[in-house]
Design a protein that fits this description.
Blueprint lengths: L7 H15 L8 H14 L4 H16 L3 H26 L2
C-alpha cells in the first residue's frame, strides 16, 4: 500500500494534468475553493459527503453555464446547506 498524502506541489501538478487533458484554464479549477468546500462539508456533514458534494457542486455549476462565477455560486450554496445541516443536527442533539 502506498502513501497517498499529496504535497501541495503535487496537487498543482495534478491540476495542471487535468487542465491539459480537458482543456481547462487555471481559473476553471479553483483548488482552494474546492478544498474549502470539502473541509466544510466534512466538518458539518460527514467526511464521505465531501467528495460527493464537490461532484454535485460541479454538476450544478456546469448546468448553470460553467463560468467561474457559476462555480463560486454552486460552492457557496453547498457550503451554506452544509452549515444549515450542522445547525439542525446540533439542535437535535441538544433536545
Amino acid at each position: 500500500m502506498s502513501d497517498r498524502t499529496l504535497p501541495p506541489e503535487a496537487l498543482e501538478e495534478w491540476s495542471a494534468d487535468l487542465r491539459e487533458r480537458f482543456g481547462l484554464a487555471p481559473e476553471d479549477v479553483p483548488i482552494a475553493l474546492i478544498l474549502d468546500l470539502a473541509r466544510d462539508v466534512a466538518n458539518d456533514v460527514a467526511r464521505p459527503a465531501a467528495p460527493f458534494s464537490a461532484f454535485v457542486a460541479g454538476l450544478v455549476a456546469g448546468r448553470a453555464g460553467g463560468s467561474p462565477e457559476d462555480v463560486r455560486a454552486a460552492v457557496a450554496a453547498v457550503v451554506e446547506l452544509a452549515a444549515a445541516h450542522a445547525a439542525r443536527s446540533a439542535g437535535e442533539v441538544g433536545r
